[in-house]
Design goal:
Helix content: 55-70%
Largest sheet: 2 strands, antiparallel
Radius of gyration: 27 Å
Number of helices: 9
């Protein structure tokens, strides 16, 4: 099947439907595959709940064939879903890695966003490369804390590590010398 588009100058441009639909997002493709897998899983469960149908003289051959096809399609869909999920995850990781420090902090800390930004601004002036002796990053975490809670080069990775530390400390800012209420 072909789509025909007529340009402003009157020329025609033909594209196959597959090319025209290539702008479909990975999330949409993943959603479609998940729906298909759900349908095939339902078929498999139907026959698993009715083993007598598989042994039936009248409909047994049809039931076994349908079950086998559903199992094969489910396996194929599961492989495609795994590939699509990895692609979506890589895209999300790239998006998160590009976030500026303030946005990354707010993405991680959510309702503590204002407090976390105030602490990071005081500790590092929102600089992911800031260092003071053993203390590094947005939240100036020491070497022991970095080993314990993680660290990374991006603002998002550093925010996630600081959030783990924040949660472990009881959701107060006691581990940091800068307190949010001094700077908000």
């Amino acid at each position: 099947m072909q789509d025909v588009a007529i340009g402003a100058n009157g020329t025609t441009n033909t594209k196959t439907t597959r090319q025209a639909g290539s702008a479909v997002t990975l999330e949409h493709r993943l959603s479609t595959r998940l729906d298909a897998a759900r349908k095939h899983r339902g078929t498999v469960r139907f026959f698993e709940a009715r083993p007598w149908l598989l042994r039936s003289e009248k409909r047994g051959r049809w039931a076994r064939t349908t079950l086998r096809e559903a199992e094969q399609r489910l396996a194929r869909a599961a492989r495609r879903i795994a590939v699509l999920r990895r692609s979506v995850d890589r895209g999300e990781a790239r998006r998160l890695a590009k976030l500026p420090p303030k946005a990354a902090i707010c993405d991680v800390f959510r309702r503590y966003c204002g407090q976390a930004v105030a602490v990071a601004r005081c500790e590092s002036r929102l600089d992911t490369g800031a260092q003071n002796g053993q203390y590094r990053g947005l939240f100036q975490m020491g070497s022991y804390e970095r080993r314990l809670f993680g660290h990374g080069a991006t603002a998002h990775a550093q925010s996630r590590a600081a959030h783990r530390y924040f949660v472990r400390s009881g959701r107060d800012w006691s581990p940091w010398s800068c307190k949010p209420w001094r700077w908000e």
